[in-house]
Write a structure and sequence with these properties.
Blueprint: H1 10-27, H2 34-46, H3 50-63, H4 68-80, H5 84-96, H6 105-114, H7 118-124, H8 133-149, H9 153-166, H10 171-183, H11 187-200, H12 205-217, H13 221-237, H14 241-257, H15 261-274, H16 279-291, H17 295-308, H18 313-326, H19 329-342, H20 347-359, H21 363-374, H22 381-393, H23 397-410, H24 415-427, H25 431-440, H26 446-462, H27 466-479, H28 484-496, H29 500-513, H30 519-530, H31 534-547, H32 553-564, H33 568-581, H34 586-599, H35 606-614, H36 619-631, H37 635-648, H38 653-666, H39 671-681, H40 686-698, H41 702-715, H42 719-732, H43 735-748, H44 755-764
Helix pairs in contact: 2-3, 2-4, 3-4, 4-5, 5-6, 6-7, 6-8, 7-8, 8-9, 8-10, 9-10, 10-11, 10-12, 11-12, 12-13, 12-14, 13-14, 14-15, 14-16, 15-16, 16-17, 16-18, 17-18, 18-19, 18-20, 19-20, 20-21, 20-22, 21-22, 22-23, 22-24, 23-24, 24-25, 24-26, 25-26, 26-27, 27-28, 28-29, 28-30, 29-30, ...
């Protein structure tokens, strides 16, 4: 056929080129009425083109907001594109406009399920609404899912069983039954149901995902990995992106559970490529960053998750762990508290909070945090070990031993518990009990064998048998020739025995075995310090700072060397550098404060103040700040800080007592009330009795005041307290006893704050 347009002049073609797009536009709806548009939307809906149906329905409703059919179509299409909120709203509007609920009962039920309106679903979506058998079964499944959402697995299973009574091959109902068993921790029945499903259809993706999750729950990470890999392949073949994302999330989890970080990173890369903005993908990236000790990246990713989902418990938990590792204990406590506030039975959160308490030097609070786990019928060995550790740190050796003994009775073959108990015996000085355990402890693993050898050395030390300890450590070195820690141990034992030559030799050997480990270098510096070689030790500290610029330990070492040399001003400056590297370190802040105080610097409490900005809940250090201001005569600042302490800890008798004294000096009428509160908390503290007694004397209440001051002298025979008693007696008219006390006081005490006043009072008598 001839192409008649080939040689046509462009000017003749141009109008046609312009006209053809106009025809296309008209065919797309230009000039269409709403009836035609609705008909087209219904065709699109039936063809599965839900977004096209949504566009037409919305266009109709802009012109006809009461168009019932358009509302129905918009609601039904919205639930199919996972917009449950719009679906519920539009379906209810259509019903309000007179639409029959029955044809859309399943769609409305699905929307309510996604929106977690479980009670409403059960109330409104009844099987009697079904217009077909398939609708009835769908409603039963929805009701079962709602009951699962309400933590009623037994009732849910009855719904799913009713579906299966009609259609035994209904895989969704079978999956529901399996899920109900999982909710009851009946993993055996859940596994049986999943295996039956996969025998019916081994390519059923939801069952593969559930199977992987169940294996993961049952701590069979290898089987979980296999299931998630298969589920991912099936989902990719079926172009089911959501299922593939779920499979990859499970795969990352399972790979991490079997400690295969490299494989987890491969799965994460696939997940990020598929769904870079998926919150689970971002969370998994945070988990891996945490495991790689990249806390900055982990925190940034978790913040992204929490910005979008602030109530995410996994993100809150991991954020607490990140802050713990980073030394931000206040932030760690805040996030862990958020988890426990909504999930007080979360075992891992309780253990994490206990660890935070331990790092805050709050061992008693750590045990209290673990108490619900310790009192539970379901024993958690890790929690018991943590409680024992906290008890040891609190000096409660008998409690630690009791926890471990009881747990060991229930788990007699647990070597970790045996070694923990041996360590607790050693801490309590019960060397025979420790030795008996160590002699019978089996070598189940290399780690346990190492711990047993180390505790054997410690046992000899507790017997004050240094030569045996050194011999055992040298035998340990023969068994662990490549372990730098053993060489450091030998060096430490030699150093404590003043064998500086052996100590230095051992520490240098540790350096050769682990050249990137800082401890051996620090230990060589310790030897040089013992030799009196300040310059050599400081050079080591400086060299380590150059090699490890982000490590605070060599900086602190240099600071302590300067303290040893009496150079407190320089030491304080070096501690400032240390705090710039680790501003949230509590012990570092305390030591910097002590050094600044020794140097006589202005604002010695500055490191503590900076620390409290990050950790405002640390009452002990805030009290130290208040006392520092008090000692320096900065009364207003001291009052402010004491009041902050009492706002958080209203029964702190030290803060109450000191604040009462400052109120007295300032003429504040609250002094007596605060002093009485202090006395109620600590009636046998001489300083507290002195404050209350002196306030009474100042008010002219001599009988009560003198009686209280006599108690104060009984509890605390301090020159200031004795002076107050003498002054009270003199003011009450008992000049003879006042004279006797003052003579004895001034004869036996060279200097105390009120000596000039005491001398003046004696002259007046």
């Amino acid at each position: 056929m001839l192409n008649l347009f080939r040689n046509m002049h462009p000017r003749i073609l141009s109008p046609l080129v312009v006209f053809l797009p106009l025809l296309v536009v008209a065919a797309c709806g230009l000039g269409m009425d709403n009836a035609a548009r609705l008909a087209r939307a219904q065709v699109a809906f039936e063809a599965g083109e839900y977004r096209a149906a949504i566009i037409d329905a919305k266009n109709i409703l802009q012109q006809e907001p009461r168009n019932r059919e358009a509302r129905l179509l918009l609601g039904r299409s919205s639930i199919r594109v996972n917009d449950a909120a719009t679906a519920e709203k539009e379906l209810r509007r259509a019903i309000d406009l007179g639409a029959d609920l029955r044809p859309v009962a399943v769609d409305l039920g699905q929307a309510l399920l996604v929106l977690r309106q479980f009670e409403q679903l059960l109330e409104e979506i009844q099987p009697a609404l079904a217009q077909s058998e398939s609708d009835r079964l769908a409603i039963l499944r929805l009701r079962g899912d709602a009951m699962m959402g309400l933590h009623r697995p037994d009732d849910a299973r009855a719904m799913y069983r009713e579906v299966l009574a009609t259609d035994s091959a209904d895989l969704s109902a079978r999956l529901g039954v399996a899920s109900s068993y999982v909710a009851e921790n009946n993993n055996t029945e859940a596994r049986k149901m999943l295996d039956e499903m996969l025998a019916i259809d081994k390519g059923y993706i939801p069952a593969r995902l559930a199977s992987g999750s169940l294996y993961f729950t049952m701590r069979n990470a290898d089987a979980a990995v296999d299931e998630f890999i298969l589920a991912s392949k099936l989902a990719r073949t079926a172009s089911d992106t959501d299922a593939q994302i779920s499979a990859l999330i499970g795969l990352v989890d399972a790979e991490l559970a079997r400690n295969d970080l490299a494989a987890a990173k491969v799965a994460l890369a696939q997940l990020q490529e598929l769904a870079p903005d998926n919150l689970s993908s971002i969370y998994m990236a945070a988990r891996i960053a945490f495991l790689e000790e990249d806390y900055e990246t982990a925190q940034a990713n978790l913040q992204q998750v929490l910005n979008a989902a602030p109530e995410s418990r996994p993100a809150q938990f991991l954020m607490a762990a990140v802050h713990l590792q980073d030394g931000n204990l206040g932030q760690a406590e805040m996030f862990a508290s958020s988890v426990l506030a909504v999930a007080p039975d979360d075992v891992e959160a309780r253990k994490l909070m206990a660890e935070i308490r331990l790092r805050q030097n709050r061992a008693g609070d750590a045990v209290a945090t673990l108490r619900p786990l310790l009192d539970s019928e379901d024993s958690d060995t890790e929690a018991v070990r943590l409680a024992a550790r906290a008890s040891l740190e609190a000096g409660q050796h008998d409690n630690a031993i009791g926890y471990l003994r009881d747990e060991l009775e229930m788990n007699p073959g647990n070597v970790d518990l045996q070694l923990d108990l041996a360590a607790a015996y050693l801490a309590a000085g019960q060397v025979d009990g420790a030795e008996a355990l160590l002699s019978t402890s089996p070598e189940e693993s290399e780690e346990n064998a190492y711990r047993r050898d180390l505790l054997t050395v410690m046992n000899a030390l507790r017997r004050d048998d240094a030569s045996t300890a050194l011999r055992d450590a040298e035998e340990m070195a023969a068994r662990w020739p490549g372990d730098a820690r053993v060489r450091n141990l030998i060096g430490g034992l030699a150093l404590s025995a003043d064998n500086l030559e052996l100590a230095r030799e051992s520490f240098l050997a540790a350096q050769e075995l682990a050249p990137s480990e800082i401890s051996a270098y620090l230990n060589v510096a310790r030897v040089d310090i013992e030799r009196g070689d300040f310059d050599s030790a400081r050079k080591i500290a400086k060299d380590l700072q150059a090699r490890f610029p982000d490590n605070v330990i060599p900086v602190a070492l240099e600071a302590e060397l300067l303290v040893t040399a009496g150079q407190f001003g320089q030491a304080a400056a070096v501690y400032d550098k240390a705090l710039s590297l680790r501003s949230g370190d509590r012990q570092l802040a305390i030591r910097a404060f002590q050094v600044r105080s020794s140097a006589g610097l202005e604002d010695p409490e500055a490191p503590l103040v900076s620390y409290l900005v990050r950790q405002p809940e640390d009452i002990e250090l805030r009290l130290a700040v208040a006392q520092s201001h008090h000692v320096q005569g900065q009364r207003l600042q001291a009052i402010k800080e004491y009041e902050k302490v009492l706002a958080a800890a209203p029964d702190n008798h030290v803060a109450l007592n000191n604040l009462a004294w400052l109120y007295l000096e300032a003429g504040d009428p609250r002094a007596e009330e605060v002093a009485r509160r202090a006395y109620e908390q600590s009636p046998q503290d001489g300083s507290v009795a002195d404050t209350l007694g002196w306030i009474q004397v100042k008010k002219g209440n001599f009988a009560e005041g003198i009686a209280m001051l006599r108690k104060a002298v009984e509890y605390n025979d301090h020159p200031e307290v004795r002076y107050h008693l003498a002054a009270g007696l003199a003011a009450a008219g008992d000049k003879a006893e006042a004279h006797r006390i003052l003579v004895d006081l001034l004869a036996g005490t060279d200097s105390f704050t009120s000596r000039p006043e005491a001398e003046e009072l004696l002259e007046s008598l």
